[in-house]
Amino acid sequence: MKFPDPWEGVPADRRLDFTVIREPIESLAEATILGVERALPVALQAVPGSLAVLLMLAKLVETTFSTIRYICAEKPEDPARRISFATSTPPLLRSMLDAIYTLIFIGEDPPTRFKWYYNAGWRELREEYDRHVQRYSGKTEWKAWLAGYGTHLATLEGQWVTAHEAANPKAIRRWPTPSNMVSSGMLTADAQTFLDYMRDWFYREFSQDDHLSLPGLIRRGSNFLRPADDSRKESTWKKLRSDWVTYAVVLFLAFLTEMVLLCNLDLRPRCSYIWGILKEYSSMAAEVYEARYETKLMA
Description:
Blueprint: H1 19-38, H2 42-45, H3 50-72, H4 89-107, H5 110-136, H6 143-160, H7 163-167, H8 178-183, H9 189-211, H10 214-221, H11 231-262, H12 268-281, H13 283-296
């Protein structure tokens, strides 16, 4: 059976020229981050630690998106940037999706979820400290480091956990993974439906790609096995790169939209405008938009 060329088989009108959305999405990202820094709603400002978490998430996701743009860029030309670098994208896409899950889960009940987030984080740090003590206590070269870590944990006790919680770290609930968020029974109906959809059609595939189970290894690595003179090799790289960049744009816009909604920033029309462009090029973007943001942005 003869298959169509992977890249040339994509209609020209379905190939997104990034220059069409570059300025709108860059300016939306800048405005969103600025809004988080300066215009959090009073109710969110009152939640201890909320600003730091939201700002770190926003800047990390923007940096992740910029990293994908850089390694997948065609222009400016750089002979050191191989087209196969795009195969490093899927784990970064999963990281972006992790941030979306976290933002939605926290946004369902900010006061309770932020406290849980910090509590669980302290437990993880304490367990890391205990592992180091078990392995390296008694070794002179580790004495100062262990003492410093212990002092740091004690300082955080008053900020992240109560004395009672610190006395029994194992009683502190762990922060849920995306899969556990979906199965927690703690989501509203619309969030449950959306995160179920994202798990089935995005997270599962990105996890395969990240963990390099056979389907993920084949997706990311099979094109390396083609002979150098195989005419389909370059076309396959172009198609894979295009698909992964499209995922990145959609996930970045989804994250920004979630942040705009959670922080009640006056940026909804700009989100809607970019979704309107994307869904004309990508059926996947249209599905994500219709699954959640079409309704949310009109509310």
